[in-house]
Amino acid sequence: MKKIVIAPDSFKESLTALEVAEAIKNGFQAVFPDAEYCLVPMADGGEGTVEALVAVTDGKTVHTQVTGPAGNQVEAHYGLLGDGKTAVIEMASASGLHHVAQDDRDPCLATSRGTGELIRHALDAGVRHIIVGLGGSATNDAGMGMLASLGVKLTDAQGNAISDGGAALINLQNIDVTELHPAMAECTFEVACDVDNPLLGERGATAIFGPQKGADKQALASLEKALTHLADVLVANGFSDQRNTSGAGAAGGMGFGMMTFMKASFRPGIEIVVEATNLKDIVKGADLVITGEGRLDSQTIFGKTPIGVAKTAKLYNIPVIGIAGSLSADVAVVCDHGIDAVFSIMPRVMTLKEAFADAEVNVTFTAKNIATVMAIQAK
């Protein structure tokens, strides 16, 4: 083995992507000490994307206080990549469900203002390329809170600013963009999004994602009516009608807001991360690529990190090994999508708590065993 590329996702609740990569390297290095190891922490646009891209580009994480989904101040962050001109924002950092206690969740009132404040902070720092990962949001306001933070005025029939939250959009009558942050016109927005839901209807933002954010039957009806009204008002004010566009329903309709006001391009998260990490060039000439995530199963083939890494490796016919915390009964399907062999790190039956605590040791041990078998075969 001369060159080994290690490009895993995080093992949720136990190891970051970088920690997984380092543990795999430690295992392989015990058997192949002279190999060149290229560690590329990965993500697919969701949790861990900022950390992965900051690590691989020698960037930095910027921390700041923003408005949380419940209106209180929360600690949030975004990544400033090594080029100094690109920012990566996970919507959940500012507007995520984890900021609101289970019993207090109410998408009728939750606001995406904090995400807009992160974007404003990045724009003020000179950033002109922003990647936004959608997912994990507590909101259902179609990104209108975000846009209000960036200078869009949303007013009722009397000219008063409407309240925050998805339900308040029923009162919207006028949209004024004359005070939109001036750098918005110079900024390119990319959205990491793996869902194709429209804004409205039985597959829309409210019907599909509202219940997990705390919406009951009455709230769902109010939110659907409010988002329908929003789409109608925007059309009446000369904006394009994006309500049926694929991805408009992502993150409580944040996709809709970004399409309409930011001309954002939407791509699968793993594609954006593969490009940002320059993975295609890194894997060129490798003898082996190792990837993985907390669980490998049939859902892995739908835009998840391991398949994105495998497809990149297969451009050069490089063998790919997948390492995971657990494997499902239907995991064999991943072998039809570029992963040549899969391994679970679990050495015995154990509790979830034990699995999380021992993850690093188990990853290293598994990697060493795989490397040992490969060394034996090479003799």
Keywords:
13 helices; 379 residues; Glycerate kinase, domain 2; five-stranded parallel β-sheet; elongated; Rossmann fold
Describe this structure in words.
It is built from 13 helices and 13 strands. It has two domains: 3-42 and 277-378, Rossmann fold; 49-269, Glycerate kinase, domain 2, CATH 3.90.1510.10. It is an alpha/beta fold and 379 residues long. It comes from Oceanisphaera ostreae. GO terms for molecular function: kinase activity.
H and E order: EHEHEEEHHEHEEEHHHEHHEHEEHH
Gross geometry: elongated
Number of domains: 2
CATH homology superfamily of the largest domain: Glycerate kinase, domain 2
Q: Could you name the CATH topology of the largest domain?
A: Glycerate kinase, domain 2
The overall average pLDDT, rounded, is 95
First CA to last CA: what distance? 12 Å
Helical coverage, percent range: 25-40%
Poorly predicted parts: none
Structural category: alpha/beta
Name of the CATH architecture of the largest domain: Alpha-Beta Complex
Proportion in β-strands: 15-25%
Rg (CA only) = 22 Å
Largest sheet: number of strands, sense, barrel closure? 6 strands, mixed
The CATH C-level class name of the largest domain: Alpha Beta
Strand order across the largest sheet: 3-4-5-6-9-10
Number of helices: 13
- Strand runs, count: 13
InterPro entries: Glyc_kinase_flavodox-like_fold, Glycerate_kinase, Glycerate_kinase_RE-like, Glycerate_kinase_sf
Keywords: Kinase, Transferase
Protein name: Glycerate kinase
Family: Belongs to the glycerate kinase type-1 family.
